[in-house]
Amino acid sequence: MMKKDQLIIGNRIFNSRLILGTGKYKSLKEMENCLLNSETEIVTVAIRRLHLLSSHKKESLITSINWKKLWLLPNTAGAKTTEEAIRLAFLGRELSKRIGQGENNFIKLEVISDPKYLFPDPIGTLKAAEFLVKKGFTVLPYTNTDPILAKHLEDIGCATIMPLGSPIGSGQGIQNINNIQIIIENSKIPVIIDAGIGSSSEAAFAMELGADAVLLNTAIAQANIPVMMSRAMNLAIQSGRQAFLAGRINPSKFAQSSSPIKGSDFLSSKR
Q1: Is residue 72's pLDDT more than 80?
Q2: Which residue in 7, 25, 26, 182 could disulfide with 147, CB within 3.0 to 4.6 Å?
């Protein structure tokens, strides 16, 4: 029997390799339906948005999600400095405890000082990651596609590497493929493609490259029919992973007959 193919991050095991964000949906109900239909097991939420936790409203982002079935990945989106990201990370850990995930030390680390292009700050990210790892966090850092930075983040104890496919929310798909392949080939921890995915084919392609998972938000939330796109992304991730494990054929310069004369002995009589 084939061993079950699972995603391992830190000390947690997941069956789904699709991680979803919670922003940009038209309603909380639509978000709930998309999370359900995607079969995701990890949901990332910007800590800055979670003043909703203390809101008097009966229905909020936090209360509308079943945290007994889904794992919270708080993120430091909006942090412009190392210090700000660290502060948000501790707030995120407190939030995890409040929803009943006392053992949850996960943090999606984002340090973005550039307001125009929203590229991650490599120096700030590295500094914050090193501090948070020492404080017992399971750090999932959002980075650019720099293989050297990826190796530094791995060496200091990060649980994953999360290079961007292309700029956040751009829907440009997977760019800088060569660097992403280098990161994947040299990483001993999971590589999660984060940001820029616009379609299911791009999600499948990310997995075919050898990525361990994909994190996305806008591609589903802003689709014409978000629930349908959430199902498509789920299937794409599964398909891409299976294709990667199966191994594609080597490209050939010339045509290769699919019914060669040689090697067809099973058709001949052996009487």
Answers
A1: yes
A2: 182
> Rounded mean pLDDT of the chain?
89
How many whole angstroms separate alpha carbon 260 and alpha carbon 128?
A: 58
Amino acid identity at 169: G
Q: Is residue 135 part of a domain?
A: yes
CA distances to 11, 13, 30 from 16, rounded to whole Å, are: 15, 9, 20
59 vs 36, higher pLDDT: 36
* pLDDT at res. 53: 46
At 64, list the tokens.
């509308």
| Closest of 63, 134, 146, 139 to residue 105, by C-alpha | 139
> What average pLDDT does range 125-150 have in this prediction?
97
Q: Is the pLDDT confidence value at 152 over 70?
A: yes
In a domain, 85, yes or no: yes
Residue 221 is assigned to a structural domain of this protein: yes
Indicate whether 3 belongs to any domain.
Answer: no
Number of domain units in the chain:
1
Q: Which of 4, 29, 108, 188 is catalytic?
A: 108
What range defines the domain where residue 97 resides?
Answer: 17-53+62-247
**Which of 94, 31, 40, 105 shows the shortest CA–CA distance to 63?**
31
Q: How far is CA 111 from CA 75, 154, 157, 166, in A?
A: 10, 17, 18, 16
For this structure, is 108 an active site residue?
yes
Question: Could you tell me the CATH number of the domain that includes residue 196?
Answer: 3.20.20.70
Residues shown for the chain: 271
